[in-house]
């Protein structure tokens, strides 16, 4: 009994000293015991920054302590703002890589599919099609299975890509129902209107969406279509090891609207660039490490689904971890980055 009372007293002392505004929330004994064990461990490991992140979670989310994990960077997506991200960027990255995740229901599938189609799809009068790199053909079959329709064909003019096609009325209706109300940009939304999907399927075409990108995997779909991860190593006379490491996340698009949504949610910059195949386009890039960490937090919630892109992301994540811990300034760390870079697909 004395031990139990002492445990409770320690708990309340820790909570009172660290975050008195949250004390009222822990009125359950199980929560108190779990919280004690977790707080003691975390305070010993990283006291100051543990408190910063804990305050963010408890004051903004009121979430149970038993659901609070630092290592997985779990966050309440609906309350994220740039100020919150700046606070959380004070935390060091976890060495543990984000786990590959599957789409759990039609709602999440719809957001992912909308992002994928807005990145590299086309909505026609008699079909809907999505271009997918041949290396990611497994994901094409996975999506076909989830959707319940579709056929996969190789393009006749290249061996580097396949198309996932929905050309029956039932298949088109299924995809339309999944993405309706989840399109962020005007271009694919206009294709629905121009091809009279409302008349064809007797269903109202919902307005262009305006959701928080942190709430769902739309951005994962868009990244699988058009995003790329970059690691660059170049000689530098000013660096002790003789080399500088640059990390980048990039998305290229013909239109700027969607990139502005992304910039607003995750920071980064947008610039014009010239393309061989079209008149021009826009390049979104995240090179500042705080912006990079925003992307890491997002992909910890919704990792890329395309096989090759997920593998590249994990390699990129390892470099980011080394960089965040300043190990790129050591010979051992720089050698690790060079080794990762040799097997890297941008």
Automatic annotation (TrEMBL):
Residues 219-320 form the Homing endonuclease LAGLIDADG domain. It is found in: Mitochondrion. GO terms for molecular function: endonuclease activity. GO terms for cellular component: mitochondrion. Signal peptide: none annotated. This is Homing endonuclease LAGLIDADG domain-containing protein. The gene is orf346. It holds the Pfam family LAGLIDADG_1. Keywords: Mitochondrion. It comes from Saccharomyces cerevisiae.
């Amino acid at each position: 009994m004395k031990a139990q009372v002492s445990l409770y007293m320690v708990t309340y002392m820790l909570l009172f000293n660290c975050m008195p505004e949250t004390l009222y929330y822990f009125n359950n004994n199980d929560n108190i015991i779990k919280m004690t064990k977790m707080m003691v461990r975390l305070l010993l490991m990283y006291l100051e920054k543990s408190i910063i992140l804990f305050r963010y979670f408890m004051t903004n989310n009121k979430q149970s302590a038993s659901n609070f994990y630092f290592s997985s960077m779990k966050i309440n997506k609906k309350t994220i703002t740039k100020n919150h991200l700046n606070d959380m960027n004070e935390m060091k990255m976890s060495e543990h890589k984000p786990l590959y995740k599957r789409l759990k229901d039609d709602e999440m599938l719809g957001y992912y599919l909308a992002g994928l189609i807005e990145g590299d799809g086309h909505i026609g009068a008699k079909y809907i099609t999505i271009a997918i790199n041949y290396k990611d053909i497994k994901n094409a079959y996975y999506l076909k299975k989830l959707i319940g329709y579709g056929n996969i064909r190789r393009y006749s003019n290249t061996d580097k890509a396949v198309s996932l096609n929905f050309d029956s009325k039932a298949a088109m209706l299924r995809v339309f129902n999944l993405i309706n109300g989840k399109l962020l940009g005007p271009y694919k939304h206009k294709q629905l209107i121009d091809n009279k999907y409302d008349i064809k399927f007797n269903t109202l075409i919902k307005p262009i969406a305006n959701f928080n990108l942190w709430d769902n995997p739309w951005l994962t779909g868009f990244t699988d279509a058009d995003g790329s991860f970059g690691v660059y190593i170049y000689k530098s006379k000013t660096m002790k090891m003789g080399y500088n490491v640059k990390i980048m996340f990039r998305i290229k698009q013909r239109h700027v609207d969607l990139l502005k949504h992304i910039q607003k949610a995750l920071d980064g910059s947008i610039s014009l660039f010239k393309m061989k195949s079209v008149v021009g386009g826009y390049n979104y890039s995240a090179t500042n490490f705080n912006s990079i960490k925003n992307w890491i937090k997002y992909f910890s919630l919704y990792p890329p689904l395309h096989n090759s892109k997920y593998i590249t992301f994990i390699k990129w994540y390892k470099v980011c971890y080394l960089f965040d811990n300043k190990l790129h300034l050591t010979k051992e760390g720089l050698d690790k980055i060079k080794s990762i870079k040799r097997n890297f697909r941008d």
